[in-house]
């Protein structure tokens, strides 16, 4: 709970009201289960490309980690338990014109406090289209692209990322909005 | 996703990540990151709350336009709820008995085997 700083009227936030330390929680959890710790990739240098075209004239790609619904692999509905069979291992693309049926039962979202019932919480396609209609963005790419949530960093770096870049170039986009789920 | 953003950026495409796992994304190092302090699964805003989704996207777009340099993180001012106790629950070991831990381990082995089969088939 919130506390008041001594001898002042300043209210401090509760001790636990900080961004969740996911890396520490995940390390502790899997260590308790008997696994060796996962090593997250990290870098000293970070690339930066300023947006070269005003957004109102730019073409923007949407990239997601959500998976196409596969009726044959079990429950992928709102609040479904973690479903590894619904995973995908290759970059995919679907037309951005209509709303695709993409789910997130294959990833570790917070099943206790949210339910993935509203696709727009993890796929901002409808909101992006509104931004295009309002003239805020020039256009969307013709397709949206799916990036596998592969635990192999080698596959991500050597296969998936070049494939995503190739598709973004084909689509002639200036910028990309990436939304992990 | 962070690795993908870096690769696109390195090749001339400006990127912004919208996400809820602040430490993981910042640990990797990405050009632009809009952080929403929401439960995982709500990177693009609150369920059935179009205004929160529109605001979240708008902040992401502003980052695309105005971030001055790499590793720019903006935190959305939106709150998931007035009470932050939801943050205590994710993978909370304190709530698990040794029996429950063993059960989770078994479940995880099953999930891993399923994923392996699927990966090898694709």
Please provide a written account of the structure.
- With 181 residues, chain A is an alpha/beta fold.
- Chain A folds into two domains: 3-32, no CATH class; 55-179, no CATH class.
- Helices cover 21% and strands 16% of the residues of chain A.
- In chain A, strands 3, 5, 7, 8 and 9 form a five-stranded mixed sheet that branches. Chain A has a two-stranded antiparallel ribbon with strand order 1-2.
- The two termini of chain A are 29 Å apart.
- With 122 residues, chain B is mainly α.
- Chain B folds into two domains: 2-82, no CATH class; 91-122.
- The two termini of chain B are 20 Å apart.
- The mean pLDDT of chain B is 94.
- Classes of the chains: A alpha/beta (181), B mainly alpha (122).
- The interface between A and B is large, with 86 and 78 residues.
Task: Give a quick precis of the structure.
The complex is a heterodimer of chains A (181) and B (122). Chain A is α/β, with parallel strands linked by helices and 181 residues long.
- Main structural class of chain A: alpha/beta
Biggest sheet architecture of chain A: 5 strands, mixed
Number of strands of chain B: 3
Low-confidence stretches of chain A: none
Tell me the layout of helices and strands.
The complex is a heterodimer of chains A (181) and B (122).
Chain A: E1 3-4, E2 11-12, H1 22-32, E3 59-64, E4 67-68, E5 92-95, E6 102-103, H2 125-133, E7 139-140, E8 143-146, H3 153-170, E9 175-179
Parallel strand pairs in A: 3-7, 3-8, 3-9
Antiparallel strand pairs in A: 1-2, 4-6, 5-8
Chain B: H1 2-10, E1 14-19, H2 22-28, E2 32-35, H3 50-66, E3 72-75, H4 98-121
Parallel strand pairs in B: 1-2, 2-3
